Every structure is written in structure tokens, then in C-alpha cells.
Amino acid sequence: MVKLRGHHLICLNFYDGDGIDEMFKHNVEFIKKKLIEGEDIKIVKGPDDICMECKYLKNQICNFSADSETEVKNLDEKALNFLNLKKGVFVNFNELKRKASYAPLEFYKDFCNGCSFMEYCKCPVKI
Ligand code: SF4
Ligand code: SF4
Predict the structure, then answer these.
(1) What is the C-alpha separation between 37 and 61, in angstroms, rounded?
(2) Average pLDDT by stretches of 10, the chain with 127 residues
(3) Closest ligand 2 atom to the C-alpha of 69?
(4) How many angstroms separate the CA atoms of 77 and 55, rounded?
(5) Ligand 1 centroid to 117 CA: how many Å?
(6) Ligand 2 closest atom vs CA 50
(7) In the list 60, 75, 89, 120, which could disulfide-bond 19, CB 3.0-4.6 Å?
(8) Pocket-testing residue among 9, 121, 122, 127, ligand 1, by greatest number of atoms within 8 A of Cβ
(9) Domain range for 15
(10) Residue 82 to residue 1: CA distance in whole angstroms
């Protein structure tokens, strides 16, 4: 079972972990491989299995930038609202892929606005 927070349910459809460091990228690739092989996802609030190998996680808080903890929490909420999912629920990656592919471009224009990883990501805003 892989634990994921809200915004990573969307981002992992388009992003492979580039832009932080090698350890982070390997972890993202490892987790995506498990998801593609069918491992269940449990939705969590706060730091997840992606954050756990991120050098910006300090004391369970995202320290990527001064406002990042607030920003990632907002993104978590936007993602869960759009996907109609909540903490504690189990999902699989195929279901997420289907839902993410239904999202209108307007959703991504808002969700991805100002994201520092845009240059590494294949999100629909760039297509
Ligand atoms: S651009 Fe950023 S917010 Fe948008 S899907 Fe990619 S990683 Fe997530
Ligand atoms: S930047 Fe923040 S939200 Fe993103 S993986 Fe690192 S700790 Fe988690």
C-alpha cells in the first residue's frame, strides 16, 4: 500500500520526480512503478510516501519555500475536491488516471499555476 496526499494523486500522473535530487527522483519512480503494477493507494492528510524522501520535509512540514506548507495543503484540498475523494479512502492508479484525464484544462490552469516543477512535468497546461 502506498500512502499519498491529495495533490500527489494528480501530480503523479504527469510528474516523474525531477528537479529536487536523485534520492527523491528514485523514490518517485519506485512508487510510480508500484502503482502501475496495481498497488493500492491510501489517501492521507499531510506528508506521504513521496514527502518522506524529500529533503524539504522538516518536522512533518513542507519547507520548500516560505509559504509552501500552506500552498501544498491548498493543493491537497483542490485535488481531493476535484477527485471527490477524502482522507482514509483507498483508490488505485487507473482510477486516478481516468479521473485526471477528465479534468478540464481550466482545472489544470488553476491547479498548476505557479508550480516550481512545471518545467519537469507533462501536465496538460503545457500541451
Ligand atoms: S505542474 Fe506541478 S502542480 Fe501541475 S501536475 Fe505538474 S507537478 Fe503537479
Ligand atoms: S516539496 Fe513539500 S509537498 Fe513536495 S514532496 Fe517535498 S515535502 Fe512533500
Answers:
(1) 30
(2) 98 97 98 97 98 98 97 98 97 95 95 96 87
(3) 2
(4) 23
(5) 6
(6) 5
(7) 120
(8) 121
(9) 2-126
(10) 23
